[in-house]
User: Fold this.
Amino acid sequence: MTEPLLEVRDLTVEFRSGGAWHPAVRNVDLSIAPRETLAVVGESGSGKSVTALAVMGLVPAPAGRIAAGSSIRLSGRELVGLGERELDRVRGDRVAMIFQEPMTALNPTMTVGEQVAESVRAHRGLGAQAARREALRVLDLVKVPSAARRMDDYPHQFSGGMRQRVMIAMALACHPAVLLADEPTTALDVTIQAQVLSLVEDLKREHGLGVLFITHNLGVVALIADRVAVMYAGEVVETAPAAELFETPRHPYTEALLASMPRVDRDVGALEPIQGNVPSIREIGPGCAFAPRCAHAQARCRESRPRLEPEGAARSVRCWLRTASP
Amino acid sequence: MSAKPILSVEGLGKRFEVGGGLLRRPAQVHAVVDASFEVAERACLGLVGESGCGKSTLARCLLRLVEPDEGRIVFEGEDVRSLDGPALRRLRRRMQMVFQDPYASLNPRRTVRQTLAEPLVVHGLATGEAVDARVEAALAEVGLPPDSAPRFPHEFSGGQRQRIGIARALVLEPRFIVADEPVSALDVSVQAQVLKLLEALRERHGLSMLFVSHDLGVVRHVCDRVAVMYLGRVVEEAPVPDIFDRPLHPYTRMLRAASPVPDARARFSLPRVEGEIPSAMDPPGGCAFHPRCPSALARCAKERPALADLRGGHRVACFLHSPEAAP
Amino acid sequence: MSAPAAVLPARGWTRRFRANPTSWLGVALIAAVVLAALLASTIWPLDPLEQNVAERLMAPTAAHPLGTDTFGRDVLARLLHAARISLLIGAFSIALAMTIGSAIGIAAGYLGGWFDAAVTSLLDVLLSFPTLLLGLMVVAMLGPSMGNLVIAIAITELAPFARVARAPTITLKGRDFVEAGRALGFSDLRLVVVHIIPNLLSEVVVVASLWLATAIRTEASLSFIGLGVKPPTATWGGMIREGFENILDAPWLALAPSLAILVTVLGLNLLGDGLRDAIDPRARRD
Ligand SMILES: Nc1ncnc2c1ncn2[C@@H]1O[C@H](COP(=O)(O)OP(=O)(O)OP(=O)(O)O)[C@@H](O)[C@H]1O
Ligand SMILES: Nc1ncnc2c1ncn2[C@@H]1O[C@H](COP(=O)(O)OP(=O)(O)OP(=O)(O)O)[C@@H](O)[C@H]1O
Ligand code: SF4
Ligand code: SF4
Ligand SMILES: [Mg+2]
Ligand SMILES: [Mg+2]
Assistant:
């Protein structure tokens, strides 16, 4: 196996609420190799965005903090504990993020070309002319139609899909090794989504990127992911190669997610919704976080928290059912 | 169509004027053009298409929340467009709407009880204690605890709010529900809860439904027939199995191919979807899909295909399947 | 998660209002002025109109803590009674401006079309006049009297209320819950009264507290020019004008009512700002 580009170990991120710290992300382990897409899936509020923000060093202080003992290594270099200036250099240089909402992440008063050029200049120290040329190159790369003409347009003159491609162009302009994409297609039509996904796929192949792809759409996962991490209530509950995850889900939550999804390709009979809601970060008990909604929950599940145990060479599961008796 | 239609729509059209000023002539958006379809008694018609193709406008026209410019809407034998005043209010007892955004669709300053009681009182369907009884029944019907009644919308999750929105649509005991993307804002698991609820209610009350969505998976699960819209026009309409397993129109095929399936074995190479969605303000001539169509013929740029009836209640507007041109 | 957008006051605004010390200062100042006005005769039982030529232009003493004016009337008594008139005129004119102005704004926003266009241009014209000039013109047309003064001040403040009510009406009209109401067969009147007005009231109230300060200033200015309430009735503006004639010999005559206006206006502005910060979702930090 190749050396991972990004390796997250035991990441815990806490937020302050009502005078106490509550973990929104708990003991998360992830790794991404070059040319690999790791999809992170889970319901809203399961901690996907917070995980990506932590990698970017963007956990909002003072309301939030990365807990002691967490480690985020990028090409072997520890990021936790770096100062703001060094982090700034890492961001954009080595790791870039596409944010969930393109309209709020783009500046409405600057032309698209200026914004891409600016991020090129900030990270690669190019002159104004060179930066503009580079901006045009990446806008062409992400297939903004007639980019030379349209780079002087403002974001609101672009369609949603084009804006999303501009975000990707900005992220790529700095030749990152790792791309964090936070639900980059959720707001898009399926046809535009397909365009954006195939763009990311091409870039990965051609430039050796490692991609962390956050989504709650299992269909998208099946399309693009090499490996999948399923998150629930701030924890990774299952990781597996994509093909195996859909074939043989091992965690009851993964199973339930798959059973609750209507499909285009065949009739599924009755849907089986997961009853109840994702718990808020303030109401997580000592046991398995999924226990209140789990069809297989036993007494032990409510008392102590299962660990993420390896299963075979490439998978791991966090569930008492899958843990050999102590 | 065999079953008696509860709703039939013919040649429905709606234009919006946008961007007009003192000196500038406003541009026209053709949001819905010449839409015709029927919904059978107790059936559910799905309406799919890309963002901005006119789905919501069409849905709102049916309830006269948007005034159509032309066409006929016949609901239970009544000409909807000619209704006025009290007759329109009576129509609105029989046809109701469920909205997409569970946050925007409830008045934040009204309790659940007030929200559910108001329609009953306005239509004079209940007074005094009968109101409370019916509110409670409505809550039970959508699976919310009775103690929800005195609470405000912000105390509920998205899925619970959507249930309140459904309860509000049901208190008047309508025969027909227009649901405009009722689950698009919800998480998969919650989406499944709400879909199941809608299914159960349809069964129990013999409701008919128009179900707008851009998620083909959801439509396949919920609907009996599907109409596919492109730039304001219905380009294909057929029973669910035909649309999903034997789509005829190249646009329907593109939608179907671009819809992801949660199965890594079905990991087809990503479809190369070319071209942006053209603007409804300036739709291409001929077949509006021709700039993006992989099978476009020479005539497609000049003539517009008519929506032709094929066998088995399958209708499609494409020269590949019917040489008939629209007048 | 999509946040419930604009227009609607953020939840917990009363808590935020109470947590803000400057809004408390505003409340305290206004409470003091209102109490003083209400209890004028109890606090200081002298007659504000009783003349005493022998005691003209006396400097502050124990018997007359703020001195006396050219007619030998007690300035403190006049100041307290003037507070009643000034606050009443301010309150009545704001109530009038708020009711009519918001009604115009809501109607324009709700009906839209040419009516909205016409109202908006009219408001722009109205807003382009300086407040005082507008008040002056109206009083000059109607003639000076207390009722006309209220009307004149109300007219100068119609436009801000109309504007502040119109914008959220347009937003709310497009919100799904109003649309849902139409689908349920609710009348326009019900939609406006039950579903739109309660959701924009808080903004209007904020504007009211800020413009009440302006109303009091306008009343003072008009009275100062002599177009306000007729003498001998005491108003703050009138007192400043009378004091001005003897500004060198008896500066307290103009100073006392000026300070009273200052305190009231400051109090109202603090109160209004506090309300706005508490209600405005953009100021929200949770
Ligand atoms: N700034 C913050 N302050 C307090 N809590 C926060 C903050 N940001 C996130 N959280 C909490 O952390 C948890 C995880 O949030 P996160 O945004 O990572 O979810 P997500 O998986 O990205 O969900 P979505 O699919 O909705 O984007 C949530 O319970 C959220 O309430
Ligand atoms: N009130 C309006 N004024 C002007 N244009 C409008 C108005 N409402 C809709 N439109 C335009 O009509 C077209 C159809 O809009 P509609 O909302 O019906 O689309 P939709 O299919 O529901 O899209 P989505 O999937 O994004 O909800 C769009 O081009 C839209 O911009
Ligand atoms: S540990 Fe228990 S409750 Fe948790 S997922 Fe496994 S079986 Fe369910
Ligand atoms: S009519 Fe022509 S352009 Fe239109 S869908 Fe059919 S083949 Fe394509
Ligand atoms: Mg997120
Ligand atoms: Mg819509």
